[in-house]
């Protein structure tokens, strides 16, 4: 572009410094970047429990499988079925069963290590991804601890929520096929 010699020959000009507009654009852009990051993290989470959802679990399993191949370590995967949530859902409705499931997941999260991940696959169905568990027997002890905690659970609330709770699990310990 060329510079105009006078205001009459100028077809576009700035009335003041462009910094106010620039600051507004940068501030707005940063808000969008923050919202996008928050939205991306919510895409991997179950909105009801805050646990990983299926896409988040798939991403986490991919990362863990890459790690066990790279490091030659192991990975344990455990499918957990909460007995009683589905009965509560059928008998008393979605709101009470969601509330009970949230309470149970809070307790289950306390039973695992910080770097283990728990994912919700559906009503009462969860998947535990645990790394660096040396043997299947150790994983079975974790499952037994979870079972005893869930079975002793006495949920506060209306008498309708007094459905007996239980936990069944299927566990796998994965190791690399080659050294």
Model description:
With 179 residues, this protein is of the alpha+beta class. It is built from five helices and four strands. The protein has helices spanning 19-43, 54-71, 85-92, 94-110, 136-151; strands at 75-83, 117-122, 125-131, 166-174. The protein has a four-stranded antiparallel sheet, sandwiched between helices. A hairpin with a 2-residue loop joins strand 2 and strand 3. 20% of the residues are buried.
Keywords, separated by commas or semicolons:
alpha+beta, elongated, 179 residues, 17% strand
Topology summary:
Blueprint: H1 19-43, H2 54-71, E1 75-83, H3 85-92, H4 94-110, E2 117-122, E3 125-131, H5 136-151, E4 166-174
Antiparallel strand pairs: 1-3, 1-4, 2-3
Helix pairs in contact: 3-4
Please tell me the overall pLDDT: 78
Q: For the largest beta sheet, what order do the strands appear in spatially?
A: 2-3-1-4
Low-confidence stretches: none
Envelope shape: elongated
Total helical elements: 5
Helix coverage percent of residues? Answer: 40-55%
Q: Give the distance, in angstroms, between the N- and C-terminal Cα atoms.
A: 64 Å
- Structure summary, number of beta strands: 4
Task: Estimate the strand proportion.
Answer: 15-25%
Helix/strand-derived category reads alpha+beta
Order of helices and strands: HHEHHEEHE
């Amino acid at each position: 572009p060329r510079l105009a010699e006078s205001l009459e020959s100028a077809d576009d000009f700035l009335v003041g410094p462009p910094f106010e507009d620039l600051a507004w654009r940068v501030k707005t852009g940063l808000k969008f970047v923050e919202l996008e990051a928050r939205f991306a993290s919510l895409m991997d989470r179950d909105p009801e429990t805050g646990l990983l959802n299926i896409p988040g679990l798939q991403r986490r399993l991919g990362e863990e499988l890459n790690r066990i191949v790279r490091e030659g370590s192991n990975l344990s995967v455990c499918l957990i079925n909460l007995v009683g949530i589905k009965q509560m859902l059928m008998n008393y409705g979605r709101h009470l069963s969601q509330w009970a499931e949230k309470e149970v997941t809070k307790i289950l999260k306390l039973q695992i290590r910080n770097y283990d991940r728990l994912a919700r696959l559906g009503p009462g169905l969860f998947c535990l991804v645990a790394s660096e568990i040396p043997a299947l027997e150790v994983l079975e002890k974790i499952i037994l601890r979870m079972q005893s905690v869930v079975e002793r659970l006495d949920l506060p609330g209306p008498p309708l929520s007094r459905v007996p709770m239980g936990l069944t699990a299927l566990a796998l310990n994965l190791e690399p096929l080659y050294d």
